[in-house]
Fold these 2 entries.
Entry 1:
Amino acid sequence: MWYPGHIKKAKSKIKTYLKTVQGILELVDARAPYASRAYEFEDLFKDKDRIILFNKVDIADEKNLIFWENYYKSKGYKVLKTSLKNVSIKSFLTKVVYKSFQKKFSELRVMVAGIPNVGKSTLINSIKGKKSLRVGNTPGVTRGVQWISVNDQFMLLDTPGILYSEIYNKKIMYKLILIGSLKPEEDEKEFAIEYGFNFFKEKYPEIIRNALKSDVIPDDYYNFIELFAKKRNFIASGKTYDTERAMTVFLKELSDGKYGKIVYDFPEDYDMLK
Ligand code: GTP
């Protein structure tokens, strides 16, 4: 679980580095464009040129992204969508991202930000290589922080502290578990699966069918997990099904997008959007 202590610590760290960048490239998981957003940091970033990058569109249900794209645009953000796993990241950065920022200086410096598991390392590592550079003497930048040079005019600051989404209700917590951004406590795992199962039954029944490789949709999440364990031959001692293992495997495959395209966030989930 993430507690305010984490947020406070990350905030103070990020504040220092913010002075050295002109822009923020904030990654979110396209499957939860609202829940995977680090709202706690909104105030810190408000004076910067900001892009929200919906990553993992390859496993997101694109028709349900339109609302969220418009939502962020209406708030003054630039919105980009991609699948970092499936594009040439270098050319995406130079041809799309660079051009989307307003350039005030000859060199553009941008902080890469985002909660866990949204694709920050995928982005950074792909361009790191020889060109990566440590800048210890830039004002406000302490040693050990990585600046990655995309080209002569474009530098990325590797996230100095992972952001945390503010979990102000259980739905957000379950969504973050289902997309793999939050490691669940034991009891939370089962609740998240129950939430996910009921959600899929209503909005994306094919996810359940694909997970089970069957046309049968069980009545409730527990029967689903038992059937999942049975199909995979996960047996615990005493010849019962190993539902613990089934839950872990299901969550991992689900967060990796193995069963189909999903968007978990709907405007009606959020009181302030009603
Ligand atoms: P932390 O290190 O926990 O902060 O995560 P991160 O934000 O650095 O994410 P990372 O780059 O490690 O990616 C998390 C997982 O998502 C990895 O398994 C990636 O392979 C996967 N991933 C990244 N981009 C994409 C994408 O566009 N599509 C899909 N399907 N998976 C992606």
Entry 2:
Amino acid sequence: MGKTILITGANRGIGLELTREFSAHGWRVLACCRDPQVAGELKNLAERLPEALRIFPLEVTDSARIQELSAVLADEAIDILLNNAGVSGPERQDFGAIDTDAWLRTFRINSIAPLDMAAAFVEQVARSRRKIIATVGSQLGSLTENTEGGMYAYRSSKAAAHMVTKNLAIDLHDRGIIAVALHPGWVRTRMGGPEAPVMPRQSAAELFQVLTSLTLKDSGKLWAHTGQVLPW
Ligand code: NDP
């Protein structure tokens, strides 16, 4: 049986590399991005892999569009639903200097959209063989690992995404669905910046290993790209 992954934010950064990685391993990829028109690298990849890679427009804060896409893909079995799309939030987000509207928008994208996606695609995931819902969280969203403070919007939105994951792991356990959060490393993307030590390709290759090794007992945890479990 073919293996299928749906990835949000697949046009650049870690999402694009995950798309490359999974298609290179023979997976079918349902690659979602806000604006396929300007997703040059993703479109080039899709031209080379017409059978394996399909591109769908998806703004993850648009719940109506999420429902529409779920209806279009109603007959699919989705082995991995990968909520990768994310933002770092407002430029200034230190104590006493935060734009609360921008914080709310950060929540909408990083914490609420993953649950919206899970609810819309749960049937397609449940009928697949692997049954995985993965959300790219962050070590910066770990309460235990927070020793530096700051980054209120990003940290709190990723901590909320982690809680959504933990809830999904509990609520969907009886359907055999595995829900995990992922820490991809500090990765050299537009978000991670030029100083980041991990290249997107390495992160994607390591996340591939993590995702394809998961079993139900691994659900409800924050997995680093290295294969380590990080504390919430
Ligand atoms: P990038 O900024 O390179 O890419 C972000 C992706 O998310 C883009 O494809 C972007 O699309 C998409 N996106 C943002 N907002 C929306 C939206 N509203 N609807 C649909 N797509 C959206 O970041 P990374 O690749 O580095 O990050 C990917 C994930 O990894 C994020 O969740 C991030 O928080 C997480 N992460 C990254 C780390 C790093 O060091 N890079 C560390 C820890 C976690 P568009 O091109 O249209 O803007």
